[in-house]
Amino acid sequence: MLSTDTLSSFVPENQFTGVDTFSFEELGLSPVRETPDDVGTTTRGRGKGQGKAMGSSSRTVAEEEDDEETGKRTGLVRTPSPVIALQITLFAGQGICIGITNHHAVADGSSIVNFVKSWGRANRSGDDEAFHQAVGRHLPVLDRNLVEDHGKLDSIAWKFVRNRNPNLDFSPSLVEFPINRVRSTLLLTKNQVQNLKNHVYANTPNSRDVSSFTVISAYAWICALRSETSSEDDEEEIVYFSLAADCRGRLNPPLPESYFGNCLVFVRAGARRGSLKKKGGFLIAVESIREATQRILQSDRGVVESADWPLDFRKNSGQCVVSVAGSPRFDVYEADFGWGKPRKQEFVHLDRQRSISLCKSRDFEGAFEIGLSRNKAEMDIFERVFGDPNMALE
Questions:
Q1: For residue 235, what are the domain limits?
Q2: Which of 21, 31, 38, 268 has a 20 to 30 Å separation from 313 between CA atoms?
Q3: Which pLDDT value is given to residue 305?
Q4: Is 336 a catalytic residue?
């Protein structure tokens, strides 16, 4: 299996035989150096089939203007640890699987999804003219100078890094995944999401517009808490729901949607476990998530001035936290390499965390996929609560 953050599979028109796996280097993408503008590797299976994996990269590490000078200024030394890696696996007679893992210093989820979709457009474009027509306006914007922070973010980031890793040891470590987990992908239709919103409007005086993201997250948070199997949970304990909010459009001046990098702020909502598990808990969850998001994104100080959130992130350690990966705006199923829609997207890191994933549905307009990984006992309860709104909302 691929130890990756995002896993997408595609079924091509021609059938492959044999299974070949390509490392980052074999695809011509160095994890620590600049790569050629255009990289193409023709791959052959062990039988009659063949396929082609194509990609391009301009730089895959933080953009130091001068390695030696940067090292003197920051004390940072280059290590063999890659900050982004891709793996493509061909399955005999079935299709291919693309695995991507990356450090958030390089790119956030929006950047990676746009990269994969642009890659797909490039793969099916045919010639240079068709490529520019298909990809031109979607090309990533890499200019870090567009973010005006007067050194504040650099200072906060380095404080965060040195607190967590004072020796600046970035040696790669083996990631172990639990084996006692089962996975499930659940669906909320457009009508079901609207029903959740209507429930908020009907039961919250003077309620304002509530987003799909907020009601979906609150619903999943309630389902997660009510599927806990421990009988020793403290009902007075503050439990949390965390998310990463895109702030490209909230900077001054705003960043283009195609900005490739990390442009997120950390948001953490909290409430008493007992209040969330009792009747009306869903409404409390909605208000908690909405208030926490507005506190960060609509701060009078601005997003950048409120960017001490990396230090708050450490407060999650040892606490009961449900987090969400992805967004209702993510539509990786648009990534057509010329073979049609991907069959499935998975966030592999869910197996190591109490997270859920969220993205647009592959097959149903206006619907959303919610992915999770739990032990069998918790999963059975989660699915039962998720499938019965009366149980989750009352």
A1: 182-393
A2: 31
A3: 63
A4: yes
